[in-house]
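Re: [ENG-882] Designed sequences occasionally contain unexpected residues at chain ends

Forwarding the minimal case from QA. Structure tokens:
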């Protein structure tokens, strides 16, 4: 998780994801090349480490089946996710030479993110918690995961609902006063993203 995300976004989707998953952890930093915990995981020969991030030769979980996924991921997989804004995530990967060689995972996204209060490079770009939710469900469908996901996005949805109400409340002068509250929330996605998004 990028330090800005860790310090300023206490309700960020990375924090929510951590709270939803017992078998997860947050490692804060920008350059993880010499990070002791990251290298401990990467250097353990019993582990198989992967990065959920756009790339040319990604292993697409949406188009593979259980036995193939199980063979690819091994018995003790670790999935790294770069949590931060898209520019921050790109910088984290650029600086972290130990993460760059990792095999990458992806999936075919057919839904639009419900994170309507935050600008994304494209409408089909998902937040951290939405991406993890999608991955978990794909693994469940292929018999490789058995965690409960029915209410996984519930805290996220409630947070969005609350913030939208605050934004649109004409009596609330302390919450993003620069937003015109008489105008419904518009599509806040960039129309001309500069990067290719593998989730599409």
């Amino acid at each position: 998780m990028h330090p800005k995300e860790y310090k300023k976004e206490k309700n960020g989707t990375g924090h929510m994801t951590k709270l939803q998953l017992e078998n997860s952890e947050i490692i804060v930093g920008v350059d993880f090349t010499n990070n002791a915990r990251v290298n401990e995981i990467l250097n353990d020969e019993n582990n198989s480490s992967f990065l959920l991030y756009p790339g040319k030769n990604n292993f697409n979980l949406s188009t593979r089946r259980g036995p193939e996924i199980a063979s690819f991921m091994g018995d003790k997989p670790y999935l790294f996710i770069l949590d931060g804004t898209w520019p921050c995530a790109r910088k984290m990967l650029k600086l972290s030479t130990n993460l760059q060689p990792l095999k990458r995972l992806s999936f075919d996204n057919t839904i639009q993110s419900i994170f309507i209060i935050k600008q994304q490079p494209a409408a089909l770009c998902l937040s951290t918690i939405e991406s993890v939710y999608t991955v978990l469900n794909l693994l469940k469908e292929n018999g490789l995961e058995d965690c409960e996901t029915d209410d996984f996005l519930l805290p996220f949805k409630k947070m969005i609902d609350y913030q939208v109400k605050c934004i649109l409340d004409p009596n609330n002068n302390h919450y993003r006063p620069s937003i015109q509250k008489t105008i419904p929330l518009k599509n806040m996605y960039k129309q001309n993203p500069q990067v290719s998004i593998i989730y599409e």
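QA comment: On inspection the terminal residues look reasonable. Residues 14 and 46 are 26 Å apart (CA to CA). Proposing we downgrade this to a documentation issue.
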